[in-house]
Write a structure and sequence with these properties.
The chain is of the alpha/beta class. It has ten helices and seven strands.
């Protein structure tokens, strides 16, 4: 259902890999709500070809960008403003990768070159995106930037590995750059801490099914879906949330503030 919440707005969506991606669903809903967008991902991801389908559906151009390259990011903003006809109103940073997770290397045995690359892509890339836009003055006043996080930034989930450290850094950058961008152009910068979600990245974590089922039982409302996360992102891009910035916003059905669930206690044999 469209309420034209983003009518006349221009956006850049990072990280739409396939139909399971939260970024994919955000792109679809942003266009349904009246926005014009460009899509971007790493060159290697674009070679998979699935983004062409999304681009056709959204009438959006795809611009390749390596998030560790300042030149690529500058080109991304320049081309996006040219294509869309003005400054950018919203950005979704949906980027994350851990080589240690992919290779099954235990946290206590972390390869530090892998960890550095993971931090570079998963967290420092947000700083690069914001710094590029800041220097170019590429985001409109009262614009909105979102990144996607997970509660492992605050709590221990053993198999989430060094992605937990990356998410902690990501949330810190959200607060720190959010302050400076707010002072400069009233641009809002927030992170959304989403429930475990069956995306390509999420389901690659060891024990993900256990994560998912445990959180679903613990959350009074159950796990939030990718579609529901996309809806939340749209609300954060809209003018209705103009005074929200520098926040880590839990979108997890109440999991983050539930100490224990009665059904789980019962299942453990409590009397």
């Amino acid at each position: 259902m469209s309420n034209n919440l983003l009518a006349g707005k221009r956006g850049i969506i990072f990280g739409a890999l396939n139909e399971n991606s939260i970024a994919w669903k955000v792109a679809q809903q942003a266009v349904q709500q009246g926005a014009k967008i460009t899509l971007t991902n790493a060159p290697i991801a674009l070679r998979m070809g699935e983004m062409n389908k999304l681009a056709a559906e959204c009438n959006a151009e795809i611009i390749a960008a390596d998030v560790t390259s300042m030149d690529d990011l500058k080109n991304l903003f320049e081309k996006s403003m040219e294509i869309l006809g003005g400054k950018i109103d919203f950005v979704l940073h949906s980027v994350g990768m851990s080589i240690n997770v992919r290779k099954g290397i235990h946290y206590t045995e972390s390869n530090y070159d892998n960890m550095h690359k993971g931090f570079d892509i998963s967290a420092m890339s947000l700083h690069r995106v914001l710094q590029t836009a800041y220097k170019m003055d590429a985001i409109s006043e009262w614009g909105s930037v979102l990144t996607l996080s997970y509660i492992a930034a605050q709590r221990v989930f053993p198999d989430y590995n060094d992605m937990a450290d990356a998410k902690s850094l990501l949330e810190s950058i959200t607060r720190s750059f959010g302050y400076h961008y707010g002072k400069f152009r009233k641009v809002r910068v927030n992170s959304i801490s989403q429930s475990p979600t069956y995306t390509t990245a999420g389901s690659g974590v060891k024990g993900f099914d256990g994560f998912y089922n445990y959180a679903n039982k613990m959350s009074p409302l159950g796990n939030a879906t990718a579609d529901q996360c996309a809806e939340y992102c749209i609300s954060m891009f809209s003018d209705y949330t103009r005074m929200v910035t520098m926040q880590n916003l839990f979108h997890d059905g109440g999991f983050s503030f539930t100490g224990v669930d009665a059904e789980i206690i019962e299942a453990m044999g409590s009397k």
